[in-house]
Fold this protein.
Amino acid sequence: MSDLTMVELTWIEKRIERWIRFGKIVEDQILDRRRRIVGFAPGSVFAFVRWASNDYGTIVSRIDILRAFVAGEPYSTVPYVKPGGEILLRLTGWPKVEQALRQIDAVEQLEIKPEEAAPDHWRHVHNRLTAGEQPRSYTRPMHVAWTLRRRAGA
């Protein structure tokens, strides 16, 4: 059994779109022209976006930012993610999903890979957007502090 966290992606134009917004994919299996399965190393962070519609419009918009499953640690199950992961952010509804995507863009504008940003930032974004509030921006000094904390093993 692999220690990777596997995510099933599907792309059926204007019907079902499940895709990775960020994260370092370490394994990629193409099932057919519409489906593939990607794998993430234990402890890595990634964003998984799910969107679906029917003849009447959008029926689901969701984004999850997860830390991939690490053996021996607790984890949550998430549809299409095996076995699951630590949920850092989970939002439903296009307005909140769009705001989360803007927060990801803002981190990238700092020339920081979103998967390397402090997990606490994604928890903060989740909490603020869930409460209908504007999240604080991620900053380079915050990132430096996170990087030093991570190196120190804290």
User: Anything to note?
Assistant: The mean pLDDT is 95. The chain has three helices and eight strands.
